[in-house]
Amino acid sequence: MINTVIVDDSDAAVVCLADKLEKYADVQVVATATCGEDGLREVARRKPELLFLDVELPDMTGIEFLERMNGAADGACHVVMYTAYADYMLPAFRNKAFDFLLKPVDEGELDTIMRRFSADVADAPRQAKTGEPVRRDGGKLLFYTNSVDFRLVRICDICVFIYDHDTRVWTAVAAGCDRPLRLKRNVTKDTLLGIDDSFVQVGQKFIINVNYLLEVRDNVCRFFPPFDNIDYVKVGRFFRRKLINRYNSL
User: Fold this and answer.
1) In what order do the strands lie in the sheet containing 158-164?
2) What is the pTM of this model?
3) I need a surface site. Which of 118, 133, 153, 250 has the fewest CB within 10 A?
4) What is the largest CA-CA distance in the chain?
Protein backbone atom coordinates (compact mmCIF):
# COMPACT_ATOMS: atom_id res chain seq x y z
CA MET A 1 0.00 0.00 0.00
CA ILE A 2 1.07 3.59 -0.68
CA ASN A 3 0.89 5.40 2.64
CA THR A 4 -0.39 8.90 1.94
CA VAL A 5 -0.70 12.03 4.08
CA ILE A 6 -2.79 15.12 3.24
CA VAL A 7 -1.93 18.49 4.80
CA ASP A 8 -4.50 21.22 4.07
CA ASP A 9 -6.13 23.82 6.29
CA SER A 10 -9.52 23.21 4.65
CA ASP A 11 -11.42 20.23 6.02
CA ALA A 12 -13.59 20.24 2.90
CA ALA A 13 -10.52 20.11 0.65
CA VAL A 14 -9.08 17.22 2.67
CA VAL A 15 -12.30 15.23 2.34
CA CYS A 16 -12.57 16.02 -1.38
CA LEU A 17 -9.02 14.88 -2.16
CA ALA A 18 -9.30 11.81 0.05
CA ASP A 19 -12.50 10.82 -1.76
CA LYS A 20 -10.80 11.17 -5.16
CA LEU A 21 -7.85 9.08 -3.98
CA GLU A 22 -10.16 6.19 -3.09
CA LYS A 23 -10.28 5.19 -6.76
CA TYR A 24 -6.62 4.14 -6.51
CA ALA A 25 -6.72 0.73 -4.87
CA ASP A 26 -3.12 0.84 -3.65
CA VAL A 27 -3.39 4.30 -2.02
CA GLN A 28 -4.18 4.53 1.68
CA VAL A 29 -4.63 7.91 3.36
CA VAL A 30 -3.06 7.18 6.75
CA ALA A 31 -3.24 10.69 8.20
CA THR A 32 -4.47 14.22 7.56
CA ALA A 33 -3.58 17.55 9.16
CA THR A 34 -4.92 21.09 8.92
CA CYS A 35 -1.76 22.95 9.99
CA GLY A 36 1.95 22.66 9.35
CA GLU A 37 3.02 21.61 12.84
CA ASP A 38 0.55 18.74 12.93
CA GLY A 39 1.51 17.81 9.38
CA LEU A 40 5.20 17.63 10.25
CA ARG A 41 4.44 15.34 13.18
CA GLU A 42 2.35 13.05 10.98
CA VAL A 43 5.06 12.89 8.30
CA ALA A 44 7.70 12.04 10.91
CA ARG A 45 5.45 9.39 12.45
CA ARG A 46 3.92 7.84 9.34
CA LYS A 47 6.88 8.08 6.92
CA PRO A 48 4.53 8.39 3.91
CA GLU A 49 5.48 7.55 0.35
CA LEU A 50 3.13 10.29 -0.91
CA LEU A 51 2.34 13.69 0.62
CA PHE A 52 -0.24 16.16 -0.68
CA LEU A 53 0.75 19.55 0.74
CA ASP A 54 -1.23 22.79 0.53
CA VAL A 55 0.79 25.89 -0.43
CA GLU A 56 -0.69 28.15 2.25
CA LEU A 57 -1.12 26.82 5.78
CA PRO A 58 -2.19 28.87 8.81
CA ASP A 59 1.17 28.55 10.59
CA MET A 60 3.68 28.28 7.72
CA THR A 61 4.06 28.14 3.95
CA GLY A 62 4.58 24.98 1.97
CA ILE A 63 8.23 25.94 1.35
CA GLU A 64 8.80 26.34 5.11
CA PHE A 65 7.13 22.97 5.63
CA LEU A 66 9.47 21.29 3.16
CA GLU A 67 12.53 22.95 4.66
CA ARG A 68 11.56 21.71 8.11
CA MET A 69 10.71 18.24 6.87
CA ASN A 70 14.46 17.57 6.63
CA GLY A 71 14.21 13.98 5.50
CA ALA A 72 11.57 13.04 8.04
CA ALA A 73 10.16 10.70 5.41
CA ASP A 74 13.53 8.96 4.88
CA GLY A 75 13.94 10.56 1.45
CA ALA A 76 11.27 8.30 -0.07
CA CYS A 77 8.39 10.78 0.13
CA HIS A 78 6.98 12.21 -3.10
CA VAL A 79 5.53 15.65 -2.36
CA VAL A 80 2.66 17.00 -4.45
CA MET A 81 2.03 20.71 -3.82
CA TYR A 82 -1.47 21.85 -4.56
CA THR A 83 -2.86 25.35 -4.80
CA ALA A 84 -5.40 27.57 -6.52
CA TYR A 85 -2.74 30.12 -7.49
CA ALA A 86 -0.71 28.66 -10.34
CA ASP A 87 0.69 31.85 -11.86
CA TYR A 88 3.03 32.83 -9.07
CA MET A 89 3.21 29.80 -6.82
CA LEU A 90 4.25 26.99 -9.14
CA PRO A 91 7.65 28.35 -10.22
CA ALA A 92 8.65 28.88 -6.58
CA PHE A 93 7.94 25.24 -5.71
CA ARG A 94 9.13 23.53 -8.88
CA ASN A 95 12.55 22.70 -7.44
CA LYS A 96 11.15 21.41 -4.16
CA ALA A 97 8.25 19.15 -5.09
CA PHE A 98 7.70 16.01 -7.12
CA ASP A 99 4.58 17.43 -8.78
CA PHE A 100 1.83 20.06 -8.61
CA LEU A 101 -1.92 19.96 -8.54
CA LEU A 102 -4.32 22.86 -8.99
CA LYS A 103 -7.48 23.43 -6.98
CA PRO A 104 -10.20 22.51 -7.57
CA VAL A 105 -8.69 19.09 -8.15
CA ASP A 106 -9.21 17.80 -11.68
CA GLU A 107 -9.41 14.00 -11.85
CA GLY A 108 -7.51 13.92 -15.14
CA GLU A 109 -4.62 15.88 -13.63
CA LEU A 110 -4.68 13.64 -10.58
CA ASP A 111 -4.49 10.58 -12.85
CA THR A 112 -1.44 12.08 -14.57
CA ILE A 113 0.29 12.67 -11.25
CA MET A 114 -0.46 9.16 -10.03
CA ARG A 115 0.90 7.67 -13.27
CA ARG A 116 4.07 9.72 -12.85
CA PHE A 117 4.33 8.59 -9.25
CA SER A 118 3.93 4.93 -10.19
CA ALA A 119 6.51 5.24 -12.97
CA ASP A 120 8.98 7.00 -10.68
CA VAL A 121 8.59 4.37 -7.97
CA ALA A 122 8.99 1.59 -10.54
CA ASP A 123 12.19 3.21 -11.82
CA ALA A 124 13.68 3.72 -8.35
CA PRO A 125 15.31 0.27 -7.94
CA ARG A 126 16.91 0.48 -11.38
CA GLN A 127 18.06 4.07 -10.77
CA ALA A 128 19.68 3.00 -7.51
CA LYS A 129 21.44 0.15 -9.28
CA THR A 130 22.49 1.88 -12.50
CA GLY A 131 22.79 5.49 -11.38
CA GLU A 132 20.39 6.81 -14.01
CA PRO A 133 18.70 10.10 -13.03
CA VAL A 134 15.80 9.70 -15.43
CA ARG A 135 14.35 7.06 -17.72
CA ARG A 136 16.60 6.19 -20.62
CA ASP A 137 15.48 5.26 -24.12
CA GLY A 138 17.87 4.63 -27.02
CA GLY A 139 20.63 6.87 -25.66
CA LYS A 140 18.26 9.60 -24.51
CA LEU A 141 17.45 11.15 -21.17
CA LEU A 142 13.99 12.31 -20.17
CA PHE A 143 13.73 15.69 -18.45
CA TYR A 144 10.43 16.91 -16.97
CA THR A 145 9.98 20.57 -17.93
CA ASN A 146 6.96 21.05 -15.67
CA SER A 147 4.48 18.87 -13.81
CA VAL A 148 3.24 17.02 -16.90
CA ASP A 149 5.44 17.96 -19.87
CA PHE A 150 8.80 16.45 -20.66
CA ARG A 151 11.61 16.65 -23.18
CA LEU A 152 13.79 13.87 -24.54
CA VAL A 153 17.43 14.83 -25.01
CA ARG A 154 20.11 12.69 -26.60
CA ILE A 155 22.98 11.99 -24.23
CA CYS A 156 25.45 12.92 -26.94
CA ASP A 157 23.84 16.40 -27.17
CA ILE A 158 24.64 17.27 -23.55
CA CYS A 159 27.78 19.36 -23.14
CA VAL A 160 27.84 20.37 -19.47
CA PHE A 161 26.12 19.54 -16.22
CA ILE A 162 26.18 22.53 -13.85
CA TYR A 163 25.33 22.50 -10.16
CA ASP A 164 23.13 25.43 -9.15
CA HIS A 165 23.94 26.24 -5.52
CA ASP A 166 20.90 28.52 -5.14
CA THR A 167 18.36 25.81 -6.01
CA ARG A 168 20.62 22.90 -5.03
CA VAL A 169 19.99 20.99 -8.25
CA TRP A 170 22.07 19.96 -11.22
CA THR A 171 21.19 21.41 -14.62
CA ALA A 172 22.13 20.26 -18.12
CA VAL A 173 23.27 22.43 -21.04
CA ALA A 174 22.29 20.63 -24.23
CA ALA A 175 22.16 21.37 -27.94
CA GLY A 176 18.81 22.66 -29.13
CA CYS A 177 17.73 23.84 -25.66
CA ASP A 178 17.50 27.58 -25.12
CA ARG A 179 18.05 27.26 -21.36
CA PRO A 180 19.60 24.72 -18.97
CA LEU A 181 17.34 21.80 -18.08
CA ARG A 182 16.83 21.13 -14.39
CA LEU A 183 17.22 17.68 -12.95
CA LYS A 184 15.49 16.28 -9.89
CA ARG A 185 16.82 17.21 -6.47
CA ASN A 186 17.88 13.64 -5.70
CA VAL A 187 20.27 13.48 -8.68
CA THR A 188 23.90 13.48 -7.53
CA LYS A 189 27.22 13.95 -9.30
CA ASP A 190 27.85 10.20 -9.04
CA THR A 191 24.55 9.60 -10.80
CA LEU A 192 25.55 11.90 -13.66
CA LEU A 193 29.04 10.46 -13.97
CA GLY A 194 27.48 7.02 -14.26
CA ILE A 195 25.36 7.91 -17.29
CA ASP A 196 28.16 7.62 -19.82
CA ASP A 197 31.95 7.36 -19.84
CA SER A 198 32.18 10.63 -21.75
CA PHE A 199 31.18 12.65 -18.68
CA VAL A 200 34.06 13.84 -16.48
CA GLN A 201 34.00 16.13 -13.46
CA VAL A 202 36.29 19.15 -13.87
CA GLY A 203 35.18 21.22 -10.88
CA GLN A 204 32.95 21.16 -7.83
CA LYS A 205 30.03 22.43 -9.94
CA PHE A 206 30.94 21.27 -13.47
CA ILE A 207 30.74 17.92 -15.24
CA ILE A 208 31.62 18.06 -18.94
CA ASN A 209 31.21 15.85 -21.98
CA VAL A 210 34.81 15.37 -23.08
CA ASN A 211 33.69 14.70 -26.65
CA TYR A 212 33.01 18.45 -26.95
CA LEU A 213 36.20 19.58 -25.24
CA LEU A 214 38.49 21.50 -27.61
CA GLU A 215 41.10 22.78 -25.18
CA VAL A 216 41.71 24.10 -21.69
CA ARG A 217 43.04 27.66 -21.84
CA ASP A 218 43.85 29.59 -18.65
CA ASN A 219 42.07 26.83 -16.75
CA VAL A 220 38.87 27.47 -18.70
CA CYS A 221 37.31 24.78 -20.90
CA ARG A 222 36.70 25.66 -24.53
CA PHE A 223 34.27 23.56 -26.50
CA PHE A 224 33.50 22.67 -30.09
CA PRO A 225 30.37 24.17 -31.70
CA PRO A 226 27.56 24.51 -30.91
CA PHE A 227 28.98 25.14 -27.45
CA ASP A 228 31.83 27.45 -28.46
CA ASN A 229 30.13 30.35 -26.65
CA ILE A 230 30.55 28.68 -23.24
CA ASP A 231 33.41 30.38 -21.39
CA TYR A 232 32.60 29.85 -17.72
CA VAL A 233 33.55 26.22 -17.08
CA LYS A 234 36.71 26.33 -14.99
CA VAL A 235 38.91 23.33 -14.24
CA GLY A 236 39.59 22.95 -10.53
CA ARG A 237 43.11 22.18 -9.37
CA PHE A 238 42.00 18.91 -7.78
CA PHE A 239 40.34 17.75 -11.02
CA ARG A 240 42.98 18.91 -13.51
CA ARG A 241 45.24 15.87 -13.12
CA LYS A 242 42.31 13.48 -13.50
CA LEU A 243 41.30 15.24 -16.72
CA ILE A 244 44.84 15.05 -18.11
CA ASN A 245 45.12 11.38 -17.15
CA ARG A 246 42.02 10.75 -19.23
CA TYR A 247 44.22 11.13 -22.33
CA ASN A 248 47.53 9.63 -23.34
CA SER A 249 50.42 12.10 -23.16
CA LEU A 250 52.08 12.83 -26.51
Assistant:
1) 181-182, 169-174, 158-164, 206-209, 199-203
2) 0.53
3) 250
4) 72
